[in-house]
């Protein structure tokens, strides 16, 4: 089970004076603080046993890392993607953790595929507690005037229409169950403009707005809907952006104030936390996981 706070409990234990110090009362005070802190920590342990997570784009990159992280936390996972072989690899990683993995081949931009994938998840895994609507494409790099209309439509369809469709079919199951948590995958391109990426940037800004709207619509019914906005994450998408060359990777890394790309697992950690009870009061929010990219 994941406990992002566990290390803090240990740190609190270590902070105290040892028994050989002059002031034993002082030590006991620290020990008591540490025990209180430990019980806070225990209360925050992320335990998704008996729960079901639905992850799109789970055959690669951030989606795979999140699907595996859900399984590490104890959930069974629907692995949804157009890429069958990548989905099988993800499913194997989940099964090694002793959890069920259901592979559903679906193009998330298609109404029928998405409805079927979600219904299949509930039919085969029994319920739907968490969804990470993550599948996305970068599209062509071209300024607005030069971007072909069909390229615009494709990116908006895969990145934004998919989020609408996913929530449209996920939420009714969560309403029937009495609650749930959804995380949509936006981007720092959902928070600031990116010259040369008009469709991608518009689609990710759209996700931020849609996330806020859906959160307001279902907050009273105990469904929390948030988004993550990753910065530069070391995945096949970034390999394509960078051209897979060292200078290309350096140019991507140089965009990041933190001075490095993130591992996909670092985004997965934020997704898991947003789905957990630790984030019980977080709703309608887009969490930048970006090494301070948008802090400038
Ligand atoms: N990598 C980054 O730096 C970065 C930064 C910000 C946001 N993001 C977002 O994170 C998400 C995941 O990206 P990634 O970096 O892991 O990329 P990736 O290319 O490694 O993975 C994307 C996955 O989505 C799947 N997919 C694509 N179109 C699909 C469709 N129509 N239906 C179903 N599945 C489809 C792909 O097959 C692939 O498995 C995307 O939404 C992306 O925009 C990535």
Q: Can you walk through the features of this model?
A:
With 296 residues, the protein is an alpha/beta fold. It folds into 2 domains: 6-42, no CATH class; 46-295, 3-Layer(aba) Sandwich (Rossmann fold). 50% of the residues lie in helices and 13% in strands. The protein contains 10 helices and 7 strands. It has a 7-stranded parallel β-sheet, sandwiched between helices. α3 (61-72) runs parallel beside α4 (84-96) and α8 (236-242) packs across α9 (246-254). Bound molecules: nicotinamide-adenine-dinucleotide. Residues 56-57, 59-63, 81-83, 86, 106-109, 134-137, 158, 185, 187, 230, 232-233, 235-238 line the site of nicotinamide-adenine-dinucleotide (NAD).
Question: How much strand?
Answer: 5-15%
Low-confidence stretches: 1-21
Bound molecules: nicotinamide-adenine-dinucleotide
For the record, give the distance between the C-alpha atoms at the N and C termini, rounded to a whole number: 35 Å
Architecture per CATH nomenclature, i.e. the level-2 architecture of the largest domain: 3-Layer(aba) Sandwich
Reported by name, the CATH topology of the largest domain is Rossmann fold
Question: What Rg is obtained from the alpha carbons, in whole angstroms?
Answer: 21 Å
Mean pLDDT rating: 90
Features:
binds nicotinamide-adenine-dinucleotide, globular, 50% helix, 296 residues, alpha/beta, 7-stranded parallel beta sheet, Rossmann fold
In short, what is this structure?
This protein is α/β, with parallel strands linked by helices. It has helices spanning 6-15, 24-43, 61-72, 84-96, 111-125, 149-177, 198-218, 236-242, 246-254, 264-275, and strands at 52-56, 76-81, 101-105, 130-133, 180-185, 223-230, 286-289. The protein has 2 domains: 6-42, no CATH class; 46-295, 3-Layer(aba) Sandwich (Rossmann fold), CATH 3.40.50.
């Amino acid at each position: 089970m994941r406990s992002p706070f566990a290390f803090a409990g240990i740190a609190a234990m270590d902070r105290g004076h040892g028994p050989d110090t002059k002031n034993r009362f002082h030590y006991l005070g620290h020990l008591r603080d540490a025990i209180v802190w430990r019980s806070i920590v225990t209360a925050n342990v992320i335990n998704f046993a008996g729960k079901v997570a639905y992850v799109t784009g789970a055959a690669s990159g951030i989606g795979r890392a999140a699907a595996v992280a859900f399984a590490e936390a104890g959930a069974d996972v629907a692995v949804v993607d157009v890429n069958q072989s990548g989905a099988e690899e993800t499913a194997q990683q989940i099964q090694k953790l002793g959890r069920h993995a259901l592979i559903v081949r679906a193009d998330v931009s298609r109404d029928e595929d998405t409805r079927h994938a979600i219904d299949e998840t509930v039919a085969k895994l029994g319920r739907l507690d968490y969804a990470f609507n993550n599948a996305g494409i970068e599209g062509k790099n071209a300024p607005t005037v030069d971007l072909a209309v069909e390229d615009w439509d494709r990116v908006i369809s895969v990145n934004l229409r998919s989020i609408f469709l996913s929530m449209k079919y996920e939420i009714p199951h969560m309403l029937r169950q009495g609650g749930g948590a959804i995380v949509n995958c936006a981007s720092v391109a959902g928070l600031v403009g990116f010259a040369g990426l008009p469709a991608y940037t518009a689609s990710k800004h759209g996700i931020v707005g849609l996330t806020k709207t859906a959160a307001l619509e279902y907050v009273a019914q105990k469904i929390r809907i948030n988004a993550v906005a990753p910065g530069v994450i070391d995945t096949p998408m970034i390999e394509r952006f960078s051209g897979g060359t060292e200078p290309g990777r350096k140019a991507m890394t140089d965009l990041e104030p933190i001075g490095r790309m993130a591992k996909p697992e670092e985004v997965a950690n934020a997704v898991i936390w947003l789905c957990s009870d630790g984030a019980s009061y977080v709703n309608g929010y887009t969490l930048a996981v970006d090494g301070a990219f948008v802090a400038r």
